Amino acid sequence: MAATAYFDYAASAPLDPRVAAAQAEASALIGNPSAVHGPGRAAREVIDRARDSVARLLSADPAEIVFTSGATESNNAALKGSYDAAARANPGRRLRMLASPIEHPSVAETVRFLAERSGAVVDTLPIDREGRVSAADVARLITPDTVVVCVMWVNNVLGAVQPIEEIGRAVAAARSSRRVGEPPLHFVCDAVQAAGWLKLEPGRLGIDALSVSAHKICGPKGIGALYLRRGAEIEPLLRGGGQERGMRSGTENVGGIAGFGAAADLVVRDRETEVGRLAVLRRRLLDGIASAGAAILGSPGSAAPGTVFLQFRNRGGEDLALRLDAAGLAVSTGSACEAGSRKASGVLRAVYGDQASRRGGIRISFGRFTTGEEIDRLAAELLRLAA
Q: Which residues contact 194 (CB under 8 A, 6 or more apart)?
């Protein structure tokens, strides 16, 4: 049997050998980065270089980068920190959060937690048939009590790309109209699925807090970052020794941070050519299954180039994924963070309703190491299964 062809980059991309080498070299350093001796300074220099690299990935200032254990922590820190800071400054006021209905579980569950624990009022943005929200709805639904607007940049199931620049302008306009004494308004964005192929400029786009994760861009698992706009006031999620300028206490993961920096450098260097290559592979796949009668969900004209979500008339998503797995083709039925609890259809339900959710589908996601031959092999198997 042929080797497994991997089509689940949106869940976790393969570790690039060049990144693994950088991570291994840094992991061998024995010093604590907070120590003043030579080994400690060597570890600190590795972190500083990686911070510069991640800052370049985000077109940000290195002082705006906070390393975390991953995007789940970054999202929790951004949401809880923004809400708690506003609540502390506005005791007794019923504060609101505005979010899309197709956020990653690390956002959706945190918003739900804040509603249950802290009494936050959660307003949900409408979503269209392509899985997109509109800036006009954002502007319409922001109230004087709204303290957080949360919209992910690229959906992790459908690959739908949100109009982040327009949303940023709507948030900025609402913020500028606030009177003295009214609560702050933060724009929080999960950019995990965007970091590998879009040029991210959160400062220019009015984003206050943005999350990214290394293992989605061929970096190591267990390391992420939170972009925190200079001047944005949030409460730290973790307290302790004051690392990461007091925003994320705990001894730094030097090896993981070094790997993240190396992964960021590769994305910045190769992004333009890689996006073009992925677009060609996407077209090759869709052309190859044109006769299969599959429905392409999401926004086909503006989706992430390495993500395709398909539904087939004669097979459910889980059945199809299992049959493909048996043929050595690894695809997903949706978010890996939800699949284990059998909630992978949550995004489908929000966008298309219960019937589409029950049928499910498969998410095909590919990236740096995917070849045209693997795409052809997948297309041929999909045609066979759809017959």
A: 153, 154, 161, 200, 304
Secondary structure (3-state) at 204: coil
Question: How many of the other CB atoms lie within 10 Å of CB of 18?
Answer: 14
| Closest CA relative to residue 157, chosen from 283, 345, 22 | 345
Q: Give the integer Cα–Cα distance in Å for 298 and 307.
A: 10
The encoded tokens of residue 55 equal 């800052």
Q: Is 293 within 8 Å of 312 (Cβ atoms)?
A: yes
Residues whose CB falls within 8 Å of the CB of residue 154, separated by 6 or more in sequence, listed in order: 160, 161, 162, 191, 192, 193, 194, 198, 304, 307
Rounded CA separation 14/221 (Å):
10
The torsion angle over the Cα atoms of residues 339, 341, 342 and 346, rounded to 10 degrees, is: -80
Q: What is d(CA 84, CA 336) in angstroms, rounded to the nearest whole number?
A: 29
Question: Residue 229 and residue 93: Cα distance in Å, rounded?
Answer: 25
d(CA 136, CA 148): 16
337 is catalytic: yes
Q: Which of 150, 189, 218, 337 is catalytic?
A: 337
Does the structure show a pLDDT above 70 at 166? Answer: yes
Yes or no: say if 173 and 139 are a contact pair by the CB < 8 Å rule: yes
Q: What is the pLDDT of residues 130-143, one digit of tens each?
A: 999 999 999 999 99
For 308-350, the pLDDT digits (tens) are: 999 998 888 999 999 999 999 999 986 555 544 445 468 988 9
- Number of Cβ within 10 Å of residue 304's Cβ equals 27
Q: Is 268 exposed, middle or buried (0-12, 13-18, 19+ CB in 10 A)?
A: middle
pLDDT of residue 1: 64
Write out the DSSP string of 289-317: TGGGT-EEES-TTTS-TTEEEEE-SSS-H
**CA-based torsion, 36, 38, 40, 46: positive or negative:** positive
Q: Which of 5-14, 128-137, 291-300, 343-352 has the lowest mean pLDDT?
A: 343-352
In this structure, how many other beta carbons lie within 10 angstroms of the beta carbon of residue 358?
12
Angstrom distance (rounded) from CA 190 to CA 68: 14
What is the DSSP code string of 223-291? -EEEEE-TT-----SS-SS-TGGGTS-S---HHHHHHHHHHHHHHHHHHHHHHHHHHHHHHHHHHHTGG
* CB atoms closer than 10 angstroms to residue 272: 11
